[in-house]
Amino acid sequence: MSRGLRRFGVAGLVLITVTLGVYGTRAVLKVSEMRREMDSMERDLVTLRARTEALTKTVEQLRNDPAYIEKLAREDLGYVREGETVLKFPKSDAGR
Length: 96
Prior knowledge:
single chain; about 100 residues; mainly alpha; 2 helices
């Protein structure tokens, strides 16, 4: 084999090695980025499932639990039963 052909072969091999190294590095970085994104999405999914479960429980209580509805009406809307007396106290400042 002549020297020129051998140099051409070595140069081609080096070029192929460098090209594969560059694209391989990019692929590894992309896979790593996708794994981080997938982990983040899985954490979000766990949070959303827990929130969905809590909301489903609340809906079920609103449909079937009169005591829960009364509790909400009293706490959130300030409703009272007929004949009840409500005592309201000023909120105290903790810093005094």
